[in-house]
Amino acid sequence: MINGEIKKVSERTNKMKQLTKFFILIITISLFNNLTYSQWVQTTSGTSSFLTSVQCITNTINYAAGFGGTVLKSRNSGQTWQTLTSPSASNINKIFFPATGTASTGWVASNGVYKSTNAGVNWVQQITTGSYTDLDFIDLNTGFAVFSRTVSKTTNGGTIFTSSNYTSNTAINASKIMCLAGQTVMILGVDNANDTTFVFKSTNLGNTWTQIFRTPGVFFDMKFLSLNTGMMCGNNGLIKRTTNGGTAWNTVTTSVSTDLLGVNIASSSVFYMVGSGGVILKSTNVGVNWFTQTCPVTANLRAINVFAADDKGILVGAGGTILRTTNGGITSFVQTGNEIPQSFSLEQNYPNPFNPQTTFSFSIPNPEYVQLKVYDLLGREAAVLVNENLQPGKYSVTFNASALPSGTYFYRMTAGGFNEVKKMILIK
């Protein structure tokens, strides 16, 4: 008798536990229902000027600059932007605040070089002649600026700049300069008439320069992770990578054939590139492989800056375009409905064939780490659509393939022990 009652109590207890788990699951599903996961989201800039430069001082304080002397500032991770006093009526090619300095002191490269000591409220012209294309500072005192074949150097915060030629070739115009560790400085120069790009290097803070590399093609930007590892990007989807300090560069093949205009090294492994037609590329293995990210615009994108620590970032481009992300640019997807699926599934994309957008649908019956990736016929990653832990439910993903050429592609979903591949066709 006593044993029977104990058994009944135990059964009631187990039923209550099961009901509790069920209701918790239902509540969890309802919380995630119709949740949209952010990617690159367009924000209002307040200008139609071509924005050429962006810098994230912190994960909340950001600057952007561009044509017509435009200077913008955001204090909330790029959600809203304030127009600051213009230092010049000419185009601004670079805005820069040294990471080792304070958020109040910075410079712009324009028709000369201008400095602000009050976070962009006011500007003082320090170099009065020359259409400067780029600048970079080691700290608040030592920095460089370039235009044509002239490199200007200061060791006192810009009060005095000394100038010298980094090359005797009058056809080579400097487009980028960057300060690396120690006394190493690099210059990217382009002979546009002959579609040839050059790399110059100094190991004594710009006292002397040596041409270390030359290659066909026009490259627009170059960044270095360290003294050895660097990336450059250029016209027609050109990407090159070095691991020996710029002496030799290997071509990196991707499925993108549009001009790539800007590169950002976010961390020791995460790199980004942007380009014409709304192209956004991301690498998670030190620039060895690249995949596209979905972009909501088709404008030419010029510059990008992402904090890998929290995946917050800003990119800018033509027509006052500003896009922001809070998750490293992961493609948006939506959880739909309240139904808990009974099994894993990956549906055929629709429409198929498509141009340039298509939609994927998939289901997961329990919490799981999900990956959904697109590959070309050679097995190269073309896009990463989902790469995170998800709650049970049905999901919809929109993919914009405007940056990819026509052809046959495959998409693959993995989740726990589930693994499925399907084929799709892009026709432009």
Radius of gyration of CA atoms, rounded to a whole number: 26 Å
Question: SS-based structural class?
Answer: mainly beta
- CATH level 3 topology of the largest domain: Methylamine Dehydrogenase, Chain H
**Residues in helix, %:** under 10%
Mind describing the biggest β-sheet?
4 strands, antiparallel
Helical segment count: 1
Regarding CATH, which class of the largest domain? Mainly Beta
Averaging pLDDT over every residue, what do you get? Answer: 89
What is the first-to-last residue Cα distance? 78 Å
The number of distinct structural domains comes to 2
Poorly predicted residue ranges: 19-38
Task: Bin the strand percentage.
Answer: over 45%
Tell me, briefly, the overall form.
Answer: globular
- Number of strand elements: 35
Widest β-sheet, arrangement of strands: 1-27-26-25
CATH superfamily of the largest domain: YVTN repeat-like/Quinoprotein amine dehydrogenase
The CATH architecture classification of the largest domain is 7 Propeller
Give structural notes.
The chain is mostly beta strands and 428 residues long. The protein folds into two domains: 41-325, 7 Propeller (Methylamine Dehydrogenase, Chain H), CATH 2.130.10; 331-426, Immunoglobulin-like (Sandwich). Helix content is 7%, strand content 46%. The protein is built from one helix and 35 strands. A four-stranded antiparallel β-sheet has the order 1-27-26-25, with no helix packed on it. A four-stranded antiparallel β-sheet has the order 2-3-4-5, with no helix packed on it. Strand 21 and strand 22 (271-275) form a beta hairpin.
